[in-house]
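Instructor's aside before we start: the two examples that follow are unrelated to each other. I chose them only because their records fit on one page, so don't look for a connection. First example below.
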Amino acid sequence: MQNLAIAIHGGAGTITPASMTPDLEKAYKSTLSHALNQSYQILEKGGSALDAVELAVALLEDSPLFNAGRGSVFTKEGKHEMDAAIMCGKTMEAGAVAGVRSIRNPVRLTRAILEHSDHVFLCGYGAEEFARKYDIAFEPEEYFYDKHRYKQWRDVRDTDIFMLDHTEDRKFGTVGAVARDANGDLAAATSTGGMTNKNYNRIGDSPVIGSGTYANNDTCAISCTGHGEFFIRAVVAYDVSCLMEYKGYTLQEACDEVVMDKLVRFGGEGGLIAVDNKGNIALPFNSEGMYRGYRTSQDQEGRVSIYKN
């Protein structure tokens, strides 16, 4: 048994049936299923975990439903600033970007950084120059325009308020993927548009290795979604790995300790997706819901869910 496994997420928060129309729920589940199945096919064909998580996140970035890539929220200036990261559990190499504009798929840029740069973390103009050097696709500002996102921003643009993706209900808009391939290698990737009306080039946890994204073949691969300031201070992704490595916790035990106990005591809301080196999956969250899905060698049909139950 190869123990292939992949999990994906599209954000967490106050996501309830009451806040969702049947058509919108169908659209979310369809997009999640497509990304899940396309990326799992890479694993089935002997592809790497790194390739699988990159594709899964890129497909979610291409959807306006999620706050990443095309669906990114508006900043205080009415622009889009995107963050992303990717990490290989086999080599412990990583690539990350923060505050990039006009990049169609920030996760593609992080992969290029991982493979072609001596650095891990690039930001702003320099990251965009690096993207041009390696033919990463750019898009005009109109590509990132979404009527609903624009209304969110318009309602608060003349205030000092920033929003976690939505006004009425707290949603943490991030997409991510974790995977284990046939060789037993792990990988993780995360991408986000950040917070609506964010100012001062604010950066969240998604591109921070060890906070929002982490992968280590000895333990697990993690991609987080939540209020980034709390996830940074709690070093969430690495904390899960540490509990497994130094205390012998199982994946589920480590995830529950960090997400359901430590984060709650911090005042942090959100969740994460995780896979360990045996192909076990965990998808804990302490919010009302989390857009999520997983597929494994043991569960060939795969599962896509939104709500707590």
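Example two begins here.
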Amino acid sequence: MLKSFSRMLLGAALIGAAFVPQAFAETSINALFMAQAAYSEADVRAMSEAFTKANPDIKVNLEFVPYEGLHDKTVLAQGSGGYDVVLFDVIWPAEYASNNVLVDVSSRITDDMKKGVLPGAWTTVNYDGKSYGMPWILDTKYLFYNKEILEKAGIQNPPKTWDELAEQAKIIKDKGLLATPISWSWSQAEAAICDYTTLVSAYGGEFLKDGKPAFQSGGGLDALNYMVTSYTSGLTNPNSKEFLEEDVRKVFQNGEAAFALNWTYMYNMANDPKDSKVAGKVGVVPAPGVAGKSEVSAVNGSMGLGITTASKNPDEAWKFITFMTSQATQNQYAKLSLPIWASSYEDPAVTKGQEELIAAAKIGLAAMYPRPTTPKYQELSTALQQAIQESLLGQAKPEDALKGAAENSGL
């Protein structure tokens, strides 16, 4: 009896042991995302839940911070082994590669990925011939316009040049339709650099030449002069100097702007009758050009997902990244951010209801102009943000402000 009881205990212990590995097989990975623009927090959570359903042995802990906190949070967490997967801006691979923040994943990228993803999208994650992640958000800024306001002003077509935009805004203002027809994201933040870069691309400017600042003259100076003129002319909403992209979206959705520069995500949000007063009146075209210099203008505002060098679970992290950037996932959420996959643009499920945006994207995404590629990007951006703000507030002439930015850029 004692022997049989012992055997029963042993059997129970063995059965229990058989279940132990399964119970403890779950791997946790920590992922850092931003809580604004493109995919919303709810959408990223839904994508992650779908991933966990397909991979029940991997748990994903999500953290969201505003864009402005994304870079510092990533860098500061390295010492504590904080994150496995991080969202990163196109401007950071040079710095992250130089400081060993992200893993080189070139060997993990398959031929199907190389062939299927739009060529321009790879510039988001590549530096010095290596890939530091997968492109995820493919984006540029477009010119949005209120079709109803333009029609009331007797304007037949949206502007094709930046000068035309100012002329049309003046017509709208003079007719009493809107006091300040243009809205921009000119807060002292990266948002202002994205608007500035769009204009630098229009004016054929250069940020760097032989590794040294070149924005103090030519197209770089022309771009800042345009911003200041637009601001001081009374055509631009004076609060633009404090606006981020979400502020611009709210003003535009409220019917208080005829023109606004913003990312892809605004198109479907501004067309949602539940939240927007301008649903059905939203027009979108590539950002304008400059006569004799450019047809259109565009900034590369894309973002990628990468594995940090602090990650203890790089294989699981890569599995999560490939799911999040897969064509199936991207197509499902194409109303928020356009897919990185070339063949997605032939899929009616992606294009239906946003044909106007897709038409603008085919031109805008091909013209994306990069912000400067340098490991010292943060210092350069901070110096330029200050120069833009000083110029808008009349504290310095644009040429002096840009000379100061060049001196303070660390380059």
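The longest helix spans residues 2-23.
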